[in-house]
């Protein structure tokens, strides 16, 4: 049981220390992954960015993901009865929303170049792993040296699923029984945009001072 996301991040950072000497970057899954990623990036001395991807939903059921898109790339699993026109329109709409989020969280900062780097994707937990899996497929197109998933807590099935796709899955807890990510935190209150910006600004100040 973690006290909060910061404590969870510090415990996770200990397990990720083996990558400290790599040319690395920490990518935080907003919003809950940001406080965790802040603690990890601070300990490892890596730059931090929010990873912005959104799932592309099926036209008949938007909750059912057929792929994911970022500001620069996208990944789609072929499905019957899903037209290219629909896919391109969805990607266009998603990118409008992602651009707004990037501007809000990262300002005018240029995105990190990921090619050849150790990319550590951080969230506050992983239940099914499907959201992060979509992100991974998109990130692979940037040709990073390694993709590492770092989470304080994950279900066994999610760890198995992601282990087939990335170089390493690092979790502090992989419980026998998994009843949702929030069950492993004393404080699992929702993270809002202001908190995301607080941690990113705080990290930026630390980098300048360091």
Description of the structure:
39% of the residues lie in helices and 21% in strands. Helix 1 packs across helix 2 and helix 2 packs parallel to helix 6. The radius of gyration is 17 Å and the shape is globular.
> Structural class, from helix and strand content?
alpha/beta
Main sheet characteristics = 5 strands, parallel
Order of helices and strands: HEHEEEEHEHEHEH
Share in β-strands: 15-25%
CATH architecture of the largest domain: 3-Layer(aba) Sandwich
| End-to-end CA span | 32 Å
Short recap of the structure:
This protein folds into 2 domains: 5-52 and 112-209, Rossmann fold (3-Layer(aba) Sandwich), CATH 3.40.50; 54-105, Ybab, Chain: A (2-Layer Sandwich), CATH 3.30.1310.
List the helices and strands and how they pair.
Layout: H1 5-16, E1 24-28, H2 33-44, E2 48-50, E3 54-58, E4 61-69, E5 74-76, H3 84-106, E6 118-122, H4 130-139, E7 146-153, H5 156-163, E8 168-173, H6 193-209
